[in-house]
């Protein structure tokens, strides 16, 4: 065991723990699980998004007398996405930090989580490593031994374009190399109703820049409760679930889903490609009228390679087809009216 620990001595992990009005019991269990890590070379930056004063006092008391924790309250509410960005920015100024890990406020880590992720990210020379999760309820009782099986995830088959359809990387299981930080920051801005999560952006960038290591070993007990920002959904990404959700909305198409995916895709291609090339490569465009053919091809590819995003692809394709049809219809009637008025 001492030999294993010494092999990891050159590394120091910075943990970004984002909080907002946390449940006291859940938070204490998460902090305890971090303290019990078999790797001792870590520090934790708790970035609080403006919790109530009594919660702030509780957090300070919980980490008192442990210098490995730093607590900072953001001066204004950032939202979870930019709160995690703030944590990455903090560690970008710490040259002693070699890797970053990310923590939610209500889960429980396996005591070897950091050790195993460090070994995998180094042995595979990966930019990002992530693991499976065990699904638990509010009381900590197991709901399912594998979130990847529960949601029918196949992350081993991901690539950058397939990630645009569906994210299969969960932030609280992620470890990244320090070298990835410069590509991640600044996070693309989100406007209005657009909303993707920090782990989706990290996975996209890491898959574009290098290798992602996938561990089919649950290293986090992922708590499912009523206040989750994101929760697990059985058979997520399948056509069956997409149809069930569509029927639950009384067959209404809000088209919001497409706008979120389109904004993320545009942000990614604008970050890493020249404008003309980005416009050609982007399968989820903003203005190009293509009736969703590139999305349909990507969905077929996801089926062939076994990624498990067919339902997401179908939803996006229907959204894009409707959007383009409305544009064509409006254009046609505008020109007919102009022609007939002459």
Keywords:
single chain; alpha/beta; Spore Coat Polysaccharide Biosynthesis Protein SpsA, Chain A; 2 domains
The averaged pLDDT comes out at 90
Shape: globular
What is the level 1 CATH name of the largest domain? Alpha Beta
**What would CATH call the architecture of the largest domain?**
Alpha-Beta Complex
Overview of this structure, please?
With 342 residues, the protein is of the alpha/beta class. The chain has two domains: 2-223, Spore Coat Polysaccharide Biosynthesis Protein SpsA, Chain A (Alpha-Beta Complex); 239-341, no CATH class. The protein contains 14 helices and nine strands. It has helices at 2-7, 24-35, 53-63, 79-92, 113-123, 147-150, 160-165, 181-184, 198-209, 239-248, 256-272, 275-281, 293-305, 310-341, and strands at residues 13-19, 42-48, 69-73, 99-103, 108-109, 128-136, 142-144, 175-177, 212-223. Strands 1, 2, 3, 4, 5, 6, 7, 8 and 9 form a nine-stranded mixed sheet that branches. α13 (293-305) runs antiparallel to α14. It is globular. 39% of the residues are buried. The mean pLDDT is 90.
Short description:
With 342 residues, the chain is α/β, with parallel strands linked by helices. It folds into two domains: 2-223, Spore Coat Polysaccharide Biosynthesis Protein SpsA, Chain A; 239-341, no CATH class.
